[in-house]
């Protein structure tokens, strides 16, 4: 009995253990099911979207409402939909993992409200947002990049201190909006600011106050002018590395540009006419300078003296005048060599070098007399060489304060003073040859010329230095039929002083105490040299031919051609008509009283044929008729041939009648003819004689 009791107890214990095992398995399955239900939202991707780990792609789906999103999403692509402000659910701002949201190209007309506070980057461009409220931006304390391009934001619609709640904002894009000034209250953490293509026309001194961290500033496509930019506007941006002022109304670069860290400066498409000498001072780290699309003709010497790190210089689209004024730039280009890339430095004037690059003018630049602006050049030392082209390589207004001696010149082209004899002779309408004779040798001469009527104080005097070995000089590209005052001054220095500075002072004193020799000359038609063939003079006379005479001659030539053409046409027409009359006789003349013959075929516009249509029974036959063979009636009977212009519209076109008309009898079977263009009148019995010729 004891053994049986133990066996039964063992069975019950085994059964109890089995039940406990099954219960544990059921509890584990239930817990797993509950865990699956609770964590379903964490892994479920919307059916209309595509998910890739933390990236959710719901763009270009024509959505008007954002579907429930996974809680693990970090980047939301919601661009190019139809989302309005009501399409953003409030549950979106409860997310703590979303870092980037793309909402551009939607239908937002207000700044979105329900955005997650964990947002770092927000793209809202290409919407219709009009205002920037401070309370909404304050909900995004971690925001670093904000894109608001292509909206309808104006200066007054930005609430005061709107960016005070975004202390980490580093990038702000407000391009292509309706701004009329720089937004106020920008955060000090800002590193890049884009305000291009707005309506900004004024920048006050305090516009960029507090933006010491700003690295890049873009103000392209606004209405900025030099008079509306404060002097110290950009000097406060000490850490600026890129400044872009493209497509504005500047005539010169703004003064006091930041120079310490600036790497790229864009000034193209402004209409610049002047670059002050100190514009680029201190910009030793400048790498790119763009001056394309302006009205610059020259650059002052010393402009690039501090730009040792310059790598790219863009100068295309400017009317560069390649004279001695750019001799320093030519030397600078060769000095830098391949270290700098220069594009667009193509000469627009003078005419002889138009279209050539400045680098290719080494031979012509050697003709520059003296050291223009401090650059030493090699000049010719032979007296037998031809005169230099003064109008090409001269220095315009090298000393604007220099004033020509009034009334010092003598008319007639010759003057003398202190044994210096000056002769001025016109060679053509725009060139003058200057020769002089100086008994006392001089190291060099200063040759100056001025078109009378211009003010010397405004810098209209043109001058150049000529070596003392020369005795002639050629002035070209002058204004025709104008009076010029040409002056020559020998430059002498004394060697009695030993000190270098004293020698320079003494030389300056000697040159200023002397009075230049001046002569007046009037440019006009070139003088024909004696014994010459006159080829060059003929060319100059043709060049001076008035435009009115050219137009008149062309008009007369065209008139003669028209008259000759009309005469030939009339003669050909008269000969054609008379030839037809002689060959076929006088047929179908009208208006004989007026003496104007008419040919049947010419009048009707049909093609002449040498055959007639003879109608016989039973059918039709084409019978050739020779030009000079008269028609003979058959059997001695009178036969009437009726010639019409157009085929008949009734039957076979045969007129049958037994009646007489003007003594001519037409008989059946002996009448051949054509129908008329009007057919028959009165039930088809009487032909239209106006269009029938017998």
TrEMBL record:
Region Disordered, residue ranges: 494-516
Hey, what's the signal peptide range on this chain? 1-32
Which superkingdom?
Eukaryota
Record carries keyword Repeat: yes
The residue ranges flagged as biased composition, category Low complexity, are 495-505
Ranges for domain Fibronectin type-III: 418-515
Family annotation (Gene3D superfamilies)? Immunoglobulins, Ribonuclease Inhibitor
Keywords, ordered alphabetically: Disulfide bond, Leucine-rich repeat, Membrane, Repeat, Signal, Transmembrane, Transmembrane helix
Transmembrane segments in this chain: where?
550-570
* SUPFAM superfamilies tied to this protein: Fibronectin type III (SSF49265), L domain-like (SSF52058)
Q: Which Pfam families match?
A: LRR_8 (PF13855)
Identify one Gene Ontology CC term for this UniProt entry.
Answer: extracellular space
Name the PROSITE patterns for this protein. FN3, LRR
The name on file for this protein is Fibronectin leucine rich transmembrane protein 1
High-level lineage: Eukaryota, Metazoa, Chordata, Craniata, Vertebrata
């Amino acid at each position: 009995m004891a053994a049986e009791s133990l066996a039964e107890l063992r069975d019950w214990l085994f059964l109890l253990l089995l039940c406990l095992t099954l219960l544990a398995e059921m509890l584990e399955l239930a817990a797993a099911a509950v865990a699956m239900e609770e964590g379903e939202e964490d892994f479920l991707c919307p059916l209309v979207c595509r998910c890739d780990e933390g990236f959710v792609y719901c763009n270009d789906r024509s959505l008007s409402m954002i579907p429930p999103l996974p809680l693990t999403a970090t980047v939301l692509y919601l661009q190019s939909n139809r989302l309005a402000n009501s399409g953003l659910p409030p549950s979106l701002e409860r997310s703590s993992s979303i870092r980037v949201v793309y909402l551009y190209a939607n239908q937002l007309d207000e700044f979105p409200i329900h955005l997650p506070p964990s947002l770092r980057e927000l793209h809202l461009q290409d919407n219709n947002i009009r205002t920037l409220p401070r309370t909404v931006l304050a909900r995004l304390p971690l925001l670093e990049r904000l894109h608001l391009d292509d909206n309808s934001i104006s200066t007054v619609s930005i609430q005061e201190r709107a960016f005070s709640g975004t202390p980490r904002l580093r990038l702000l894009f407000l391009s292509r909006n309706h701004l009329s000034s720089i937004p106020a209250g920008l955060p000090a953490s800002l590193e890049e600011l884009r305000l291009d293509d707005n309506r900004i026309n004024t920048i006050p001194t305090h516009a960029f106050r507090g933006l010491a961290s700003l690295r890049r500033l873009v103000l392209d496509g606004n209405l900025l002018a030099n008079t509306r930019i404060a002097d110290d506007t950009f000097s406060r941006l000490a850490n600026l590395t890129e400044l872009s002022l493209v497509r504005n109304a500047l005539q010169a670069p703004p003064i006091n540009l930041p120079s310490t860290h600036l790497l790229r400066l864009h000034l193209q498409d402004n209409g610049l006419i002047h670059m002050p000498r100190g514009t680029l001072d201190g910009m030793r780290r400048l790498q790119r300078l763009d001056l394309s699309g302006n009205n610059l003709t020259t650059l002052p010497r010393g402009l690039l003296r501090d730009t040792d790190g310059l790598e790219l210089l863009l100068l295309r689209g400017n009317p560069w005048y390649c004279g001695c004024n750019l001799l320093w730039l030519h030397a600078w280009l060769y000095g830098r060599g391949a270290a700098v890339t220069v594009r667009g430095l193509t000469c627009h004037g003078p005419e002889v070098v138009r279209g050539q690059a400045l680098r290719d003018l080494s031979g012509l630049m050697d003709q520059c007399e003296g050291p223009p602006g401090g650059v030493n050049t090699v000049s010719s030392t032979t007296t037998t060489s031809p005169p230099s082209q003064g109008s090409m390589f001269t220095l315009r207004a090298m000393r604007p304060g220099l004033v020509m001696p009034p009334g010092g010149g003598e008319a007639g082209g010759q003057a003398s003073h202190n044994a210096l004899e000056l002769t001025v002779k016109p060679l053509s309408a725009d060139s003058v040859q200057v020769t002089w004779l100086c008994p006392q040798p001089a190291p060099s001469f200063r040759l100056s010329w001025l078109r009378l009527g211009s003010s010397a104080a405004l810098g209209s005097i043109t001058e150049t230095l000529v070596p003392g070995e020369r005795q002639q000089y050629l002035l070209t590209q002058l204004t025709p039929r104008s009076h010029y005052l040409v002056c020559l001054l020998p430059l002498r220095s004394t060697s009695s002083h030993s000190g270098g500075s004293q020698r320079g002072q003494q030389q300056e004193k000697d040159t200023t105490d002397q009075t230049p020799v001046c002569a007046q000359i009037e440019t006009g038609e070139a003088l024909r040299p004696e014994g010459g063939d006159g080829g060059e003079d003929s060319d100059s006379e043709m060049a001076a031919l008035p435009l009115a005479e050219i137009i008149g001659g062309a008009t007369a030539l065209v008139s003669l051609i028209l008259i000759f053409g009309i005469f030939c046409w009339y003669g050909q027409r008269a000969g054609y008509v008379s030839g037809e009359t002689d060959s076929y006789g006088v047929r179908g003349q009208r208006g004989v009283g007026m003496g104007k013959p008419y040919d049947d075929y010419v009048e009707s516009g049909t093609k002449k044929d040498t055959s007639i249509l003879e109608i016989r029974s039973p059918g039709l036959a084409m019978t050739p008729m020779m030009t000079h063979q008269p028609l003979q009636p058959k059997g001695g009977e009178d036969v009437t041939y009726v010639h019409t212009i157009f085929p008949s519209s009734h039957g076979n076109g045969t007129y049958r009648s037994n009646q007489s008309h003007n003594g001519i009898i037409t008989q059946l079977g002996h009448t051949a003819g054509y129908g008329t263009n009007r057919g028959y009148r009165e039930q088809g019995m009487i032909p239209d004689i106006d269009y029938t010729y017998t």
